[in-house]
Description:
Layout: H1 23-32, H2 42-54, H3 56-70, H4 79-99, H5 103-136, H6 147-168, H7 173-177, H8 182-208, H9 222-236, H10 240-255
Amino acid sequence: MSFSRSTSPLPLPANFQRDCFSAATKRWKYLRRVFKFDQMDFEFALWQMIYLFVAPQKVYRNFQYRKQTKSQFARDDPAFLVLFSLCLFVTSVVFAIVSRLTFLQFVNFLLYAIFVDCILAGLIIATIFWYILNKYFRVNEDQDVEWGFAFDVHLNAFLPPLIILNFCQLFFYNGLISHEWFISRFIGNTFWLIGVCYYIYITFLGYGSLQILQRTNLLLVPLPLMLLFYILTLIGGINITHFLMQFYRDRVLIAS
Length: 256
């Protein structure tokens, strides 16, 4: 016995729905849930954060499931963003302690970290990827990369470097990395190499999971360039961590 889809009491799968929400409607629904903590799945968001370190490809399988069930790749639950903001706050506290910042200087650094280093940089990077991939990498002109998904990919890729560089690395800074020894710049620069490689690889996995894109392996091209730059900094005596710590301190002091 066969049944017509029109007589089924079940809703249509997202892939077959005719009246899907617009991008603006999806963004509004997402932002409206930011302060509704009881509606957020923090356990699943924490699972995603952990697996971004150990098996990031599994995180993007969930994006595929969301596309099949909700007709969008981008997250519709702001729980990940809330936990990400908490990580940003904790790492900023660690930086302030290591750098011996005053409370006002800490507030300035936190505002810079949130609105400049994370949000502004994320908006720029996500927009660049969204434009270039839709223009040059699409297989099917009828489908495109969602901007919200591009921003999610940036947040996914940004989390491991944030924890590695702004948390784990700082515990070694004053006692070891801040000196002029070779081992100091080797450890500091290695932290940065790992962090940047994480960002590139997770970004590649994110866009590589989309079947509407081709040649996404080109996103891995910066990896050997980063390795070459890493070797040159060791030979040239450049301590990347020390240089950037001084840059962030100066930026905070100027703002204060």
